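Subject: sequence -> structure tokens, single chain

Hey, anyone have a minute? Need the predicted structure for the following. Not urgent.
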Amino acid sequence: MIDIYSDELRDYIYEVDNAKRREVLLLVEKEIKRLNTKGANDFYLLSADEETIDKIEDLVNTRCLILNLMFQATDSEIKRFKTLNKLLYELTLKTYRRTANLYRALLKSEKCEWFDDDYCIEGTLRFGGYNDETSVLRLEEDDFYGSDFAYMLDVVHVITDKGRHSCEEIIQPSIHYNPKHTPNITDVELDCYDYLDDGVTWAEGWLRHPAFDPFCVCYAIHDICTHKPYSIPDLLRMNDFWSEAKLVCQHIVNQDGTRWDRNA
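Reply:
Had a minute. Here:
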């Protein structure tokens, strides 16, 4: 019987064939589901204790390793990777551009003197997790991997927010309000532009795969598959990306009515 908590498990995964890896994968996912269930159909991870979260996070990392080792790089998978790389690069550009444009719109508007003390301008791009059956694609290679991708991507999505070292956002541009700024300020002057995608590929870690050599891998893909515990097969099934830009107008007061002064 394979001990999925054994210190030797990682070496075993590297040494065996894909059939054996699939067996371990199914055991790991079964254990994740057991730890994540407290009562029927209860997604316990949303309120789990730290010890349980740590265990699930370790198992999620093991799952990620197995799937990356099993990655086949079929023609259809490479075609889908190419599509996703283009999509996520374009979403990155849009997120930066909309955040900067929102700030310029603020600069053009009249300040509300009786309310506005400061502003928070922020953009985000992230995987939206599992919202319905369209959030995670079913692909022809599903049977080969054997993973319950829909359930597991939801788990990994929560872990990236609640785990030890992860962050849910893929990119998160922000702008600090400065009353000296004018509406014609550029994205570069605001430091709100995609400086990470500079024409050099972000194919690092498991993305350093011969099948990806023809592509300039964008930073967003790098973040998903390197900074977060999503495998390449997970990435290819993601179908729910959220990009947002928001402005928060802040009114900050003491009990005596004294307002916060950003210049104090």
